[in-house]
Amino acid sequence: MSNQISNEFAGKHILVVDDIPAISEFLVAILEYEGYKVSAVTSGEDALVFVDKTPPDLILLDIIMEGIDGFETCRRLKADELSQHIPVIFVTAKNDAEDVVEGFKLGAVDFVIKPLRKEDVCIRIGTQLKVQAFIQAQQAQIIQAEKLASLAELMGEFSHELETPIGIILTAQTHMEEKLHHFQKIMSDNRLTKSKLTAFVDVVEDANRLTLSNITRAIERTNSFKRLSVDQCSEERRRFNMLEFLHHIELALRSKFINTDHQIIIQCDEDIIIDSFPGALSQVVINLINNSLIHGFENQNVGVINIDVAQQGEVVSLVYSDDGKGISAEMLPKIFSQYYTSKPDEGGSGLGLYLVKSIVEKKLDGALYCTSEVGNGIILKINLPLGKV
User: Fold this and answer.
1) pLDDT (tens digit, 9 = 90+) per residue, 12-42?
2) How far apart are CA 277 and CA 286, in angstroms?
3) Are 48 and 73 within 8 A, CB to CB?
4) How many Cα atoms sit within 13 Å of 124 on the Cβ side?
5) Residues 332-348: tens digit of each pLDDT
6) What is the phi/psi pair of residue 262, to 5°?
7) Residues 6+ apart with CB under 8 A from 122
8) How far apart are CA 108 and CA 222, in angstroms?
9) Among 51, 84, 116, residue at a domain's last position
10) Are strands 58-62 and 315-322 parallel, antiparallel or unpaired?
11) Residues 6+ away with beta carbon under 8 Å from 164
């Protein structure tokens, strides 16, 4: 037997669920020989408890067992958000077409028919692990693409944000130049009076005031964009001030709110410092704001987004809420599912909130909770570890 499979996926964790000791021992022996880490339990109930504590990379699941059978075990695994992604291969002597169909309906990825053959078991496991590796690679590419899209959006907002202060500076300087030419002509004609001098000084003061205030505004926007773009590109983990971080995002996205009565209200103590990934967290917050603007505030000109941050021991809690149209009880369980979108005919990818949850749980090592009801907006609570501060 070639060791190619074991070399490629050595160390992957396989859970064997079978109540017949001889079969369980056989599977454990051949899989450990192939280099897998293997655990074994003898019932569906034990499998559910085990997976809840130590999620494996793949499950070999017998169908006929005392207590809850393999079908019911699989049904419960796929109903749990934490285990629904784990591939399940049924191990069974049942090969009726109806059983196979039922297994696939429940979310199984393959069947291994008894009596078991070593080659058959290893090839099927290797195939499914390759599929999972491919899926994970695709998800990583999707996240990277969304990150680039977010960065491109920030660049667009940054460009738009600079148009206004630069335009005001140009207008002020042009106006002052015109007045300067007029003033020079008055002087050359010996028509200068105290009132005309005072009027010219007032023009210069106004032009300088406008120029300096808008230069400050442009620098402020540039620094916010620079900090956000550097964080999103580098994926650096660092210590940062939460209030400053949120203000950078607010400034970077301010142009989105110019022609509306929507607003962002930030409540955060000045001294909350967190050790985390600001680029990933900014992607989360920007996605939530965009979701409110596109979905929550659809067809309404007035809307409020609240971002409240508090430190509770070793946890930083970020509560994001809006007073938009809310989400129905039927739709709420689906909003974090991959590719789910309420606007499939309008180009919605269904990746926004899926990526939010994925980033919070996998990249930021946090937890996400959501509540909503129609007409009362949405509340998302994100708990993040404080980190080494």
Assistant:
1) 999 999 999 999 999 999 999 989 999 999 9
2) 14
3) yes
4) 22
5) 877 776 554 555 444 33
6) -75, 150
7) 1, 5, 30, 31, 34
8) 51
9) 116
10) unpaired
11) 214
